[in-house]
Structures are given as structure tokens and as C-alpha cells.
């Protein structure tokens, strides 16, 4: 075992060691990891390990049964098991198997899975005594193999089909076997991939892996009756409302014939559910909300329709049993103390940690530290779970224009991840790979995906190689969902369709193949691109950057994903593993002399392999809920209403000649503690990074990427794009002036970096590059302040006017008190200071009406570290002289608060100049005792 790898077992032998978390350290234990799963308490942020006692007992029984020579099995099964276990001799010098029936032997986990199924149906009673499988409450038996992504579930399906079919042909009256096989998949992607399970397919797995001991059995296998369908086929047909002939609802017989097709005349079927966690019965006591299901990536209608459809087939044709295969066989329970309920009919378990330790999949490496300030609550690197940071979550959750810059922290994270991706691509090219590695982003919403695509294609990422529009695919979730269901839309997004066509043309395919793809509907084009990422000679072969809102389809088989960026909420461990699972498939299967795979890695930013920080025996019960108070608009107080304009942005029309008085421009401080120049990544099991195997991503090695003149042009370009629409003079002259202003700023003493270590020219340039949006915003603000001719208010399109009367009722458990001078029924106290301000507002004779800005949606946009944020002031106060005062209460000042005040002052000035909303003012109270003094300044 090398000290730089988590791979400690051969994939061809039973696991003999495993990593165990001991506090914050990882220690190596001898023996096999007991089958278990994690139960998470989302209320108290705790977890505990729950052993799968039944699976552990079954493992012992199978070990005994295997050692005794499989007593009870048929002669056909015995031949198959002997043939499948044959693997030839190991050549330690060539590091490969020689003389076996197939190039690569079956993995231990694949053989254990099929052995367990055979044991359940064929072993003598004494080996199964005391073992009982709980079902799902339905009329047909279910048996589940839990197998990690990348461990070879398709091969196990082929073993099941071979075992069942050949036994059914040799023993036609034995009810344990059937040659009528129905496979249900979660979508067209998986259905297409599983076509190799048909014996007549040109690339069928039965010939590729030599599954039959002799030619006679191979010919018999052709007699299997096999149908592969995606679950959408199990949906009942909709009644044709406008049809002249009223056919009524589809009968069970008609449904069965439609779904089964070639199997319609068969009885006593076996069913194989691929990705079976999509198929479960909702128990009466299991209440799962749509929101909970979406967070877990589950379609509730799919889950129940899948099972309902199989029940209808069972009524008419009888299902003998169902074989479930899934990496995550959980059904959501809707309870807060466990995130999901494990299927109770699991008979074997080979989980993600087992697969990592056996090298079956890439090892995920997560960020364990960087050289910037950590998260204040968890002390973990901010790059570990990016979306948890308020500045990221707030920005990515708003409806933003495509051109809106990404949050500052996200841009810095992409610089680090993209630099490491570039280094990987160079290594692949040097090794002779023509297919590039892929960086995958999974984000929270469609608008974010469009912004990320613009960020890369517009050249805003500091790593220039990522500006490759012909190799960057943004996956439109709605289009992909229709593609997975086999549906097409009559309308299409012309701009998105043009992007797909450009990507197809960039794939450099033969003319006839390209013409066929261009003639397809956009749903079919997208699926063709997504399904073939990293596949030589296919439309997705040269894609290097994939941006998706959903997790892409299950079964998405892109072995060249080497980097993952997570920019969404991760509310469950299940979701984390499913997202990381998209990048776990290996590229090569080279081994060392000890029959262990050489490690491959996927580097992960923003997807926490463990969303929980503490381990414990169990969570404590939550405290009883506090009583709540309803906050609402008080009837009869219309005279206390306060109205305001909802301003989306303020356009500043600039003078043709731009000048800046640098003496009046305040110094901009770039804090190195907010800018990671390097990050340490460590290989990790679920929630357990091994800190003894740390690797560094260091941007200082990328100094050539950050030449000063190039950075000046980049900054000037950003300034140009922000100001070109409102510049009255020649646009080319504007660009020349902006370059000059950026150069002047960088040469001035107005840029402060409070760290001697960071005064090094290389580090200074890196800090400038990674904080470019902050620098641009600073320069832009003072260009605007000193050169503006006039300001134009651009109102929000959907609600241009806001008012206290529009507030929707809401509940709170915080301390609060009823009001008299406010249209809002109560004021909520977040601190003793806020109570003091509220008391002043209620008593002061100069105040006519007031409201705390809580749930009122009064906000002002401002720029901070390059991203647009919402400033939500504390109070709106209408004075007796008709003026409206916006009052902010602050205990201490900061640079960010200064930016908020500047934006608010700009807003007040523009609104007052526009007219129509009365006179407005803004001020900040830094000391409680000064509240009355500040208010009386405006009376």
C-alpha cells in the first residue's frame, strides 16, 4: 500500500482492510468493514452509524455456503458460478491476468451480489435458516443488491439474466426461474446504455464477458424474452377528451400489452429495477413534501407510478420476483430525525467507501484548508461548502441577468479549480489523450447556470483555457427532462438551439453523422451531447466544461470528469454522494503488482462529502416550540402607509471626457485573508478526509497566466461593459480612457495590501487578479461620481412600487410588541437596541408613521467584491414635515457597510431628482443614545 492512496484492497478479492474514522484521524483496520449506513439528525446536526445486521449475517452464511461448495444449487447454476469465478493466473510483472475466460475477471462485489441472489433462491434450507426478508408490503417479492456507483451494476444484471434464463430453459417447471425478463430504468439515457443486455446486440455483454461456459448455453440464452423500458412507459394513458370515440380508461390488460410489447404473451415474469431507489411504495405513515423530495432529487410521482404500473402487470401476468439494484436504496420518510429509510429487503452491500478502498471508482478529494479566512462557524475552508456562505447563497438565489458577475468567492474558487483542471488537461495531452478532462458544475437554478456559462464563454475566468464556447455545454434542465421521457416540445429557445448546433459542428464528426444530429429536435440533440461526453467519435467527445442545474441523468457515464464544482444547497448526505457520483467512474483499469488499481482522483469544490460536523450515538429531542405571533397589516391604518419606488438599477449617463481627482478617492484595501492563493485537497471517504495524504493547488505556479498588462486590459474591459450603454461619446475613446484610469489607479497609493508577504510582485498581481471585480467596482464608482451628467431610475418590471400595505402576514416566535404609529401590527425585537429605536419611533412628536423593514421587501442594490447584493435598511420613518427617513442602525462600521451607505445615498439622490415620491433622506445611527439627535436633524 502506498501512503498517498486510500486504495487498500484488490477489487478481485474480498476486502481485507478498511479505513475507520477515529476522531479526526483515519486509521487502518484489518478485516472487512461491517455493512452499515448513516442515520442523520438534521435538527441537531448529528449522525450515527447503524449496522445492517441482516446483511452481516447473510455475509457469514454465504461464506460458509461458498466454502462448502454451494450445496443445493442446480447443475446449471454450478457450471455458471465456476465459469464466472475463473480468472486465470496473475502475472505480477505485466500486472494483468493471463489465461482466463475474459480479459478482466469479475469484481468481488459483482460475484458476491449474484452469489447472494443464488443463495436466497437455491441454497439448502439450513444455510438460510432464521433469515427473513421484509418486503415493501406489495404482492410480489423484492430482493435488493446495494452497490456503489461504478461497481458494475450492468454486469450483475447480465449475470442475473444468464442465471435465470438458462435455469428456466433446463427446468421449465421450476418456479424459481423465468426467461421472461422486464427491465425498468429511470430514463432514456440508462435505457439506451442497457441495450447491451440484449443477446442479439452487436456489443452485447454476454459475448464481451464470455458469460456462458459453452456455445450450447450461449445459443440457449438467445431464447430469453427481454424488454427494457423507462419508467415513463408505466404511466397510465391520458384520456382523449376531444376524441369522438370515448374509449374510457385504459384497462389493466390493455396497459399490460402496451408496456410489455414482445413479453405480452408471457407469464411469471422477473423484473429488474435499475436505480431502484426511484421505485418504492409510499406508506400511510410516510409523509414527504414536494420540497423535501426535490431536495433529495426524488420525483414522488415517478416513485409511486413505477410501483403502481408493476402492480397492474402482476394482476394480469404475475411477477415472480423483482431484483432491485441501487447505489442508494433509500426511500424518504419525511421525518426530521432520519433523512431516509433504507429498503428492508437488502441482501448485499458494497457501498461508496468500499468502492473507494477497492479502487473501483475515483477517489474524491475535497478541500481541507486554504490560506484565506475559514468559515466562522465551522472553521472549515469556505471552498468546502461554498453555498453555505451567505454572500454566495444570497447572490445565487436572486433573479439576475446573464451578464451579472458571479460572487467574488465563487470566482476565486473557479480560478483555483480551473487552474488545477488546466494542469490535468496538460498531463492528459502529454500522455497521449485526445479527449479532454471535464469540469462539471452542479448549481442551484437556471439563471445561475446561464451566468456561469457567460462567465466562462465571456473570458471572465482567470484561466484563459476555460474560454471555449465550443467545448462548454450548459444543460437546460427542462429540455433534458423532456429528452429523458422521450418527449419533444413544439416551441424552442432559438438561442439555446443555436448553441447546441454550434457544439455539434465543433465535434468534427463525419458529414452524414453531423447532418443527422442537426436534423434532430433540440431535446434529442441535448441528450446526444450529454450521453456522449468523453466518448471518442461522438458529439460530446471534445466537451470540457458541463454546467447543469439538475444532477444530470443517472447512469450518466462520463469517465473523464475530473473536477466538480457544487453551487447549490446540500441538505442531505444522499444528495452529496449522488452529485459526487457523477464524477466517480474510472478512465483506466491499470493495476500494480499487488492487483490493486492505480489511484485516479476527482477534485471537488463546494460539495461537502459530509454535511455534518459531529458524530454521536444519537440526537437529543428538540425543545418544545415557542408560541408564535402573527405579524400583519393592521386594518384601519391606511393613513400610516409608507410607499417607495422599487428601483432595479440606476443608470448613470457619463460625460464624454472622463477625469478623476485621485486625491478625493479613498484607499481601497485588499485583504489577503479573503483571497485563497492556494488550497489543500485530501482524498476522502464519506465525511472522512485523510489529512496524511494532502495535495496542494497553488496559483503562484500559474504566474504566467497573470501578466500585469493582460490584467489591466481585463479590468478595463469589465469597466467598458458596465459603462458603454450610458456613455455619450465615442465608444473606442471610452475604452482608451478606461485603460488609462486603471493604470493610474494601480500606480497610485490608493491600493493598500496590509501584508508585507503579499507585497511580492507575483502575489500582488495574484491578489489584483482574484479581486478584479472589487477593484473595478471601486474605480467605476468614482468614475461615475465625478463624471455623471444625470441619473435615470430603472424600476422593477413586475412591482415598480412597494408599500407597507403590501406586506403578507407572517409568524414569529421572537420577542415583539404591538404598535400604534405603524401600519404593521407588531415590531419584532432582534436586540435591546432595536427596542430603544422602536420606542423612540412610537413616542417622538416629529414622527408621523414608521415601520421596521422586516418582510417589507424594501431593498437597495449595491456592489460588494464584484457581486450585486441587497442592502436592507432597518427602518422607514415618515416625518411630520413629509420627508421619509431611511434609518440604519449599526454597532460597528466596516468597508462593506460603507459601500451600502454609498449605494443608499445614490438611491436617495436619484429618487429626489426624479420626483414623484416626496423627499427622502438617509442616515446611520452608530450609538443608541444618538437616535433622537439623528432623527431631529431632518425635521
Write the layout of secondary structure elements.
Elements: E1 17-22, E2 25-30, E3 36-41, E4 46-51, H1 53-67, H2 75-85, E5 89-91, E6 96-98, H3 108-122, H4 125-128, E7 141-147, H5 153-170, E8 180-185, H6 188-193, H7 205-208, H8 215-221, E9 225-230, H9 252-260, E10 269-274, H10 290-295, H11 300-317, E11 319-326, E12 330-331, E13 341-342, E14 346-350, H12 352-357, E15 363-370, H13 390-396, H14 408-430, E16 438-443, H15 446-457, E17 472-475, H16 477-485, H17 494-506, H18 511-518, H19 522-531, E18 545-548, E19 561-567, H20 573-581, E20 601-605, E21 629-631, E22 643-645, E23 647-654, E24 668-669, E25 678-685, E26 688-689, E27 695-698, H21 708-723, H22 731-747, E28 751-752, H23 761-770, H24 772-787, E29 788-795, E30 801-803, E31 810-812, E32 816-818, E33 826-828, H25 832-843, E34 847-852, E35 860-864, E36 867-871, E37 875-879, E38 884-889, H26 895-914, E39 920-925, H27 931-936
Parallel strand pairs: 7-11, 7-14, 8-9, 8-10, 10-11, 15-20, 16-18, 16-19, 17-18, 19-20, 24-28, 38-39
Antiparallel strand pairs: 1-2, 3-4, 5-6, 12-13, 15-25, 21-31, 22-30, 23-29, 25-26, 25-27, 32-33, 34-37, 35-36, 37-38
Helix pairs in contact: 3-5, 9-11, 16-19, 17-19, 21-22, 21-24
Helix content: 25-40%
Beta-strand residue fraction:
15-25%
Output mean pLDDT. Answer: 84
N- and C-termini, Cα separation: 78 Å
Tally of individual helices? 27
Structural class: alpha/beta
Tell me the total number of β-strands.
39
Low-confidence stretches: 240-246, 334-339, 611-625
Gyration radius, in Å: 32 Å
Oligomer: single chain
Q: What form results from the Cα inertia axes?
A: elongated
Main sheet specs: 9 strands, mixed
